[in-house]
Design a protein that fits this description.
152 residues; alpha/beta; binds zinc ion; 4-stranded mixed sheet; 4 strands
């Protein structure tokens, strides 16, 4: 499949760990997105995080990311994503982190985001998939294209 990568240079990465998300970038996968999503604990008070379509949009985001990088969504089994509104999610060794991944425990903040696709869920899940704590892999540069959610 041909993915259209949008230039998103203006999209600033969040402090600590940057964000991502995408709606129209990836072709639909054959599997049901709802079965691919990790457990998401939504502790955000943001109105757009309380919307009825948040869970499907997160599932779509994860599916788009998996398709973009040809990663296996099954590797996210057992992952727990906690979405909060804090300006710092409290990541060991990282000052003012917008997201943090320790093993299969992911915590992300809505701070600075205007829709679920801009919450650094895809960024942190890429850490789950490939590790790479210092962001050396070239795939990190493609994540901002996923942040251009249709709801933003
Ligand atoms: Zn990171």
């Amino acid at each position: 499949m041909k993915l259209k990568i949008l230039v998103a240079a203006a999209v600033a990465m969040l402090a600590g760990c940057g964000g991502s998300a995408g709606e129209d970038a990836a072709a639909p996968a054959a599997t049901d997105a709802s079965t691919l999503a990790p457990a998401v604990e939504n502790d955000s008070a943001q109105s757009w995080m309380r919307a009825a379509d948040v869970q499907p949009r997160i599932a779509h985001l994860i599916q788009a990311e998996a398709a973009l990088f040809n990663l296996d969504p099954a590797a996210l089994a057992g992952v727990h994503v906690d979405v909060v509104d804090d300006t710092d999610v409290g990541c060991p060794g990282v000052h003012s982190a917008g997201g943090c991944t320790i093993g299969k425990a992911v915590k992300v903040s809505t701070f600075g985001a205007h829709c679920v696709e801009q919450v650094p869920i895809a960024h942190e899940l890429l850490h789950v998939w490939i590790g790479d704590p210092h962001h050396k892999d070239p795939r990190w540069h493609e994540l901002p294209a996923l942040m251009l959610g249709e709801g933003c």
